[in-house]
Amino acid sequence: MQNDKDPKNNLKVRPFLKLALIALSLLVIAHVSAVTSVTRAADEELHFTILHTNDLHSHAEPFSERGRIVGGMARLGHLIHSIKANTPNTVVIDAGDMFQGTPLFTHYHGDVEVSLLNHIGYDIYTIGNHEFDDGAENLGHQLKKAKFDVICSNLDVDAQPDLKSVVKPYVIREINGQKVGFVGVMTPELERLSLSLGGVKVKNLKDDWLIPVRQAVKELEGKGVNHIVAVTHCGADLDQQISQAIPQIDVIIGGHSHTRLDKALFVEHDDSSKTIIVQTGSYGRTLGRLDVAFNKDGSLDVADTKYRLINITDKIQEHPEMKAYIDKKVEPLLPLRRTIVSQAEDAFDNRWTAYPWDSALGDLITDALCEAGKSYGTTISVHNRGGMRGRIEKGPISLEKVQEILPFDNRLTFATITGKALLSALEHSVSGPVGGRFLDVHGLKLGYDPTRKRGERLVFALAENKDGSYSAIDETQEYKVAINNYTFQAGEGYDFKDAKNVVNTPERVGIPFRQYLEARPSVKPQAPSRIVPITENILSAMRKDKVIAKISNVPPNSRISLYSGTGRGITPVANNIPVPLEKPLQEAGSLSADEQGKCVWKGSVGGSWMCAVVQPPKGTKPRKLIFSYPIEIKASKN
After folding, report:
1. H helix count then E strand count, the chain
2. How many other C-beta atoms can be found within 10 angstroms of the C-beta atom of residue 255?
3. CA distance 491 to 196
4. Which residue, 243, 338, 374, 491, is most buried by CB atoms nearer than 10 A?
5. Are 161 and 140 in contact, with CB atoms under 8 Å apart?
6. Which residues have a Cβ under 8 Å from the Cβ of 114 and sit 6 or more positions away?
7. Residue 630, preceding bond cis, omega within 30 degrees?
8. What is the pTM of this model?
9. Residue 532 burial (CB < 10 Å; 0-12/13-18/19+)?
10. What does the DSSP 8-state code read for residue 44?
11. Residue 568 has pLDDT above 70, yes or no
12. Burial class for 39, CB neighbours closer than 10 Å (0-12, 13-18, 19+)
């Protein structure tokens, strides 16, 4: 039996005890160190960099715009790689709509876009509405190839197994020893915008669509995350609402509205904390760089947070491997680029989201669609602005450009509708901001008041007669229209369910557009002459020995022009300004409002109707032209 008191045994035990004590000490030190590290991380400031894009819309190649070469994923990739190599703690994010917009998507269905984001090294991405353009099943198939995290907290994707396997409500990244949460958010308008969701839907849409986002934020906070970044595909306006509704969100990386925010937006909360909102525009024209800083208490350090947009121009080097990959993918599409269908006498601009009147490109498209329906008897055509893309530069128009302008798989539909249904559609068009659902038109002239409540904005709507004159739309009369099937089938919330004699053609809308261009050696942009915004209670006019016109309720010191005409209509005048009159004559061109925003003019006029066009002075925000209602001149009773 072994004797524990034997000195020899004691000699054997002591080294073991020493080792045990040393190990125990190391464990204690490690534990204290870990606790100290966590405490220190929570008490320290945090700095990291977010590089971000949104609404790339398949623009893998550089493109010409207003005489400059812009964009291109090979340049964007080179820039991102360069910044990441020299900037620790960098996260690369895309805020959705990487699909749809060029023949590359039409041909490859999204494979090129996912591959490029993988190659560049994106970390986080949220889904955009146009990712569903080729169907939810295709989207799931493509995103299974993604090497980046796909996040969206308010989408129910249970109906699509591939999507369900990749979409997470949020992800947590450890940055410089601290946890940062990234939560994805989809626009609540998805189901109105996309007709090919395959059972995917927005959660809690009939209740409070932000409930899932709040839940995700609460879960993140429960996991010890007090720095939260939302990656949203909602648009700049909704982003501000999100920041107000969920103040725990520190940063919003936005998309969807194609808003170029050269300066970040800050939303202040009741506790004086702030949320920063950023967005880059679209098509890879810029890369956003947000160097974000947090205070020790976890709040956003506004003074130390820096933001800027970096223009992607031909001064930036192209990543050779990415360029080679893109060039190879483009090869099958080169015949489209080489096929010229017409010539543009001047540029057809792509800033139509800022145009409260008809756009030259929309006029061209609706002219083409109406002509395609001649055998049906169409006299009216409409096309939603969300269904067109790109810009036509002065010079040759290629078949590739035609596909870029109308990239969607929308088909041409002819239908007979009542005047009541037509007026309802036009009211719906102008009852929101000038954006995707806004209709460009052919065969119509309409004035709307954007200051009135929704549903009551249409002031007048005139339809073209056989002799070229215009008369008010009659609710009981029938009108034959040409329209794309997306809008006709309730896209953007339109309602044509009572239409009759419906003809759904097998042709994509790009086919009649191409045929229209091929039939014309050249085309030129038209001045706006079909749609105009007008404002009430600006102008009154009374005829005595002469006409006395009174202007009021305009910005002080505004410059005012007065026009007379023969009736309501829309006619472009100097500088392509659409005056809401028929046969307008300028009666006064340099009147000035006083400090109370008033002005009186007396003189003879050539027409029986009048309109005032008001140009606010510099410094007025927003500084935009104001058109009065067209009014009939009243005769004085005295």
Report:
1. 16, 40
2. 32
3. 11
4. 243
5. yes
6. 98, 142, 143, 145, 146
7. no
8. 0.84
9. buried
10. S
11. yes
12. exposed
Q: How far apart are CA 43 and CA 32, in angstroms?
A: 16
Lookup: tokens for 55: 């609404």
Mean pLDDT of 481-491: 96
Whose tokens are 């010539």? That residue is 343
Q: pLDDT tens for residues 184-197? A: 999 999 999 998 99
Amino acid identity of residue 14, one-letter, is R
Nearest Cα residue to 311 out of 48, 50, 53, 49: 53
**Which distant-in-sequence residues (6+ apart) come within 8 Å of 454 by Cβ?**
431, 432
- Count CB atoms within 10 A of the CB of residue 33: 10
* 525 DSSP 8-state letter: P
Q: Is 532 within 8 Å of 447 (Cβ atoms)?
A: yes
Q: Which long-range contacts (CB under 8 A, 24 or more apart) does 324-330 make?
A: 325/115, 325/116, 325/119, 326/60, 326/61, 326/73, 326/74, 326/112, 326/116, 329/60, 329/104, 329/108, 329/112, 330/60, 330/61, 330/104
Is residue 529 exposed (0-12), middle (13-18) or buried (19+ Cβ within 10 Å)?
Answer: middle
Q: Is the dihedral of CA 419, 425, 428, 429 positive or negative?
A: negative
DSSP structural state of residue 242: H
Query: Is the separation of the CB atoms in 156 and 203 below 8 Å?
Result: yes
Distance CA 315, CA 61 (A): 15
DSSP output for 66-115 = TTEEE--HHHHHHHHHHHHHH-SSEEEEE-S--S-SSHHHHHHTTHHHHH
The pLDDT value given to residue 436: 86
d(CA 406, CA 16): 80
Domains annotated for the chain, with CATH where assigned, are: 44-328 (3.60.21.10), 339-529 (3.90.780.10), 534-635 (2.60.40)
Closest C-alpha among 274, 269, 320, 279 to residue 299: 274
C-alpha pair distances (Å), 424 with each of 125, 378, 414, 470, 496: 38, 19, 18, 19, 9
| E strand residue ranges, 436-530 | 439-442, 444-448, 458-464, 470-472, 478-484, 500-508, 522-523
Per-residue DSSP letters for 376-419?
TT--EEEEEGGG----BPSEEEEHHHHHHHS-S--EEEEEEEEH
Cβ(388)–Cβ(362) below 8 Å: yes
Angle at 111 between CA 109 and CA 112, to 5 degrees: 105
pLDDT tens for 362-408 read 999 999 999 999 999 999 999 999 999 889 999 999 999 999 999 99
As a whole number of angstroms, the distance between CA 293 and CA 290 comes to 9
Helix (H, G, I), strand (E, B) or coil at 439: strand
